[in-house]
Design goal:
single chain, 278 residues, mainly alpha, two-stranded antiparallel sheet, 9 helices, 2 strands, 70% helix, globular
Length: 278
């Protein structure tokens, strides 16, 4: 089976053929009692949905806390944003190499990523805000609300389309999405390095104040790529359920979805900031 570009989903249980099927395990002979027992030890779709919802709530609560803390003390911005991003990356790598630790790693990742999301959201709200008569800036909280609403709208729409089999990722779909995502990641690294050496032109497409056609088009491309990665995530999680992955993989699958959702939210937020009209 094809692989998603999301590192947390590069696991044998999420491939199409790696894990043993019900027939291979001989469980079709065990009757309904064995099936009920297995449902308590194996990954299920409902269990994954429940754990994903919990992780999202945890991330949202952490983001709100981060927002409040940074507003009270701006010196906390760098520790919360960069600390959250770095810790989140470390936790994703730990979860990828040791999925059995996911019940602990996934909630910690959600909290760390919430610190990152809250700080970045506050930054965008400030950039898109309006200066007041007293010299202070009125935060554009509407931008944050719209970005969150659009992100969950995309998630819901894609999930419905996938559930009703309106979207079925094939080999070409996988290849295009993965190549596009890797290309976007390489461009980000090149742009960052170029900026460090005094050539910020490449990185200008990430500037939320850059409303140029190329910049907006680039953001649209990233939103599309992040959305397409959600479809790959759905497919890989479905494979995990089909392959009777261990129960802890529900946390693993939930964390993988959160990774993609955070990326999608940030790109939607950036796009809306570029499209805003004063």
């Amino acid at each position: 089976m094809f692989r998603t570009s999301n590192p947390t989903l590069k696991n044998p249980y999420f491939s199409g053929t790696a894990a043993q099927s019900w027939a291979d395990l001989g469980m079709h002979q065990a009757g309904e009692a064995a099936i009920r027992t297995a449902s308590k030890t194996h990954m299920t779709m409902q269990g994954t949905v429940n754990k994903t919802a919990f992780l999202l709530a945890l991330c949202a609560a952490s983001a709100v806390g981060s927002w409040i803390l940074i507003q009270a003390n701006s010196a906390l911005y760098l520790p919360l944003v960069f600390g959250g991003a770095i810790l989140g990356l470390i936790l994703v790598l730990v979860g990828s190499f040791k999925p059995a630790a996911s019940p602990v790693v996934a909630p910690l990742y959600a909290i760390a990523q919430g610190g990152f999301v809250g700080g970045v959201s506050l930054m965008f709200a400030s950039i898109a805000g309006k200066p007041g008569p007293d010299g202070t800036t009125t935060l554009n909280t509407g931008l944050i609300f719209n970005a969150a609403l659009l992100t969950f709208g995309i998630l819901g729409g894609l999930l419905a389309a996938y559930s009703f089999r309106l979207i079925r990722p094939n080999k070409t779909f996988y290849n295009v999405v993965i190549v596009g995502t890797v290309g976007a990641a390489l461009y980000a690294v090149i742009a960052m390095v170029a900026s460090m050496f005094g050539a910020p032109t490449l990185a200008s497409v990430y500037d939320p104040n850059n409303g140029g056609l190329i910049s907006v088009g680039f953001s649209v491309l990233l939103v599309v790529l992040a959305s397409a990665n959600l479809v790959l995530d759905f497919d890989q999680i479905e494979n995990g359920v089909r392959n009777q992955a261990p129960r802890h993989m529900e946390w693993f699958g939930g964390m993988s979805l959160l990774v993609t959702l955070v990326w999608l939210y940030i790109e939607v937020l950036r796009l809306l900031a570029k499209l805003r009209r004063e």
